[in-house]
Amino acid sequence: MPTTRKSSGRHFWLPVPDSGGPGGTRHAFRGPRWDGSATDTAVCGEEAALAQPSEMDWCTFPTCRACTETLKAEP
């Protein structure tokens, strides 16, 4: 079951692999840091399976535009 966190003003980014193949997207999640949970809901609303990312994931996965825009719009 995905974790639901209230907006605390803190968030973290984590690369999330695509379920259909190579590649993925860096999404933002509520909270101070990843707590090791297997799933969570990104700021953009996407349900994501979480895992420890590789350095290559951080370098090659693009940032989710919807997460970015949502966070920029918050007070």
Structure description:
This protein is α+β, with helices and mostly antiparallel strands. The protein has one domain (11-73). The chain has 2 helices and 4 strands; from the N terminus they run ββββαα. The longest helix is centred in the C-terminal third of the chain and has 9 residues, at 65-73. This is Ferredoxin.
Secondary-structure map with pairings?
Layout (H helix, E strand, L loop, with lengths): L10 E7 L6 E7 L8 E3 L5 E3 L5 H6 L4 H9 L2
Antiparallel strand pairs: 1-2, 3-4
Q: Could you name the key traits of this structure?
A:
single chain; 75 residues; alpha+beta; two-stranded antiparallel ribbon; 2 helices; 20% helix
What is the percent of helical residues?
10-25%
Number of strands: 4
What is the alpha-carbon Rg in Å? 12 Å
Q: Report on the biggest sheet.
A: 2 strands, antiparallel
Unreliable segments (pLDDT under 50, ≥5 consecutive)?
A: 1-5
How does the overall form come out from the CA principal axes? globular
The run of helices and strands is: EEEEHH
Domain unit count = 1
In short:
The chain has 75 residues and is an alpha+beta fold.
